[in-house]
Every structure is written in structure tokens, then in C-alpha cells.
């Protein structure tokens, strides 16, 4: 980047501001890194200042900025957990139904397998018992979900970066990730 003229830095930041969180996969892991690392905290700051209307429907992209979800978050609610999706660009969360694929809309429970570390035959997931791989056998996409009902101290944005072995495991099993994280995994 330092070898490029400074006006090209501006245009790359402006371009990322337009498509950030929506088309990162096409841009590629390296090309998105700097622009995303610079702009994501600013998007998060701006989004946190915005008044939020209550979400009445289940929407698959961030209701504030239109970006795709980075990962899911399960938060304690009554006896179980309620699922939220974490925006890949502005880092705000929105509520999302538990049995519903955020990519294709599949809602048949047995098409939506969940892989967790306690299952002994699914060992590469060991060591991260509070992270789930929520997959869809219809569209073959997956989402990592941080289960705060199991570990209340987990930080979804950070734990998602730590969960690279899970992403690799899911890729090996034929699933793709909807939206890459900052490291492009
Ligand atoms: Zn957003
Ligand atoms: Zn699906």
C-alpha cells in the first residue's frame, strides 16, 4: 500500500465504505484487510449513535447498514438462549430466529445441523466448547455462533477470529462461510 499513490488509498477506503460487509468474499482476504481494519471501528461508532427502530421481521442482513452477518451470538433468555446475528461491518446485533438459515431461508430443522465440541466424533472442534458451527445442508453455508449461555465472558468478535480451526473443519466438510472475518477466514 505504501508504494501506491495516496489518492489510491482514498479510493480504496471509499470503495470499501460502499461495499464493506456485502461483497468482501469477491474482494479477497488481503485486499479487504486494511480498508476493513480502518473503517470497521468507525462504522461501529456511527451505528452505535443511530437510534434503532424495533425489528419486526427476521432480516438476513444488518437492519442498520445492510451488511451480511459475521457470526451468530446466543444470549441467555429465560431457560434457553436467543439467537442474534453480529454485523460484519458495523458490529451491531439483531435478533434472528434459531431454526432458520440466514443465507437461503431454510427452516427445516434436520437440514440445519449444529456441530459442537462435546460430540466426541467431531474432535477438531475441541477446546472451543462455546462455539458452534451452524450449517445448512441446503445452501452449504455455515455460520460460527458464540454461545454466551455456556461462556458469558466470550467476546463474539474475538472468539470468531480464534475459531479458525472450526472454519477449516467446516470447509473440509463442504460448507462455505457467508462472510469472511478480518483475517479473511
Ligand atoms: Zn451493520
Ligand atoms: Zn441455507
Describe this structure as you would to a colleague.
30% of the residues lie in helices and 19% in strands. It has 185 residues and is α/β, with parallel strands linked by helices. Strands 1, 2, 3, 4, 5, 6 and 7 form a seven-stranded mixed beta sheet that branches. α1 packs across α3. The radius of gyration is 17 Å and the shape is globular. It starts with 5 loop residues before the first helix and ends in an 8-residue tail after the last strand. The structure holds zinc ion (2 copies). One zinc ion binds at residues 47, 62, 64-65, 67, 87, 89-90, 92.
Give the arrangement of secondary structure elements.
Layout (H helix, E strand, L loop, with lengths): L5 H14 L4 H4 L1 H21 L19 E9 L2 E8 L5 E3 L18 E2 L15 E5 L5 E7 L8 H7 L1 H9 L3 E2 L8
Parallel strand pairs: 1-6, 6-7
Antiparallel strand pairs: 1-2, 2-3, 4-5, 5-6
Helix pairs in contact: 1-3
The structure holds zinc ion (ZN) (2 copies).
Helix and strand run:
HHHEEEEEEHHE
Largest sheet geometry: 7 strands, mixed
The total of helices stands at 5
Strand content: 15-25%
Structural class estimated from helices and strands: alpha/beta
The set of bound ligands, ions and cofactors reads: zinc ion
Q: Compute the CA-based radius of gyration.
A: 17 Å
Unreliably modeled segments: none
Mean residue pLDDT: 86
Q: Specify the helix fraction band.
A: 25-40%
Report the count of strand segments: 7
Q: Whole-Å distance between the termini?
A: 21 Å
Shape: globular
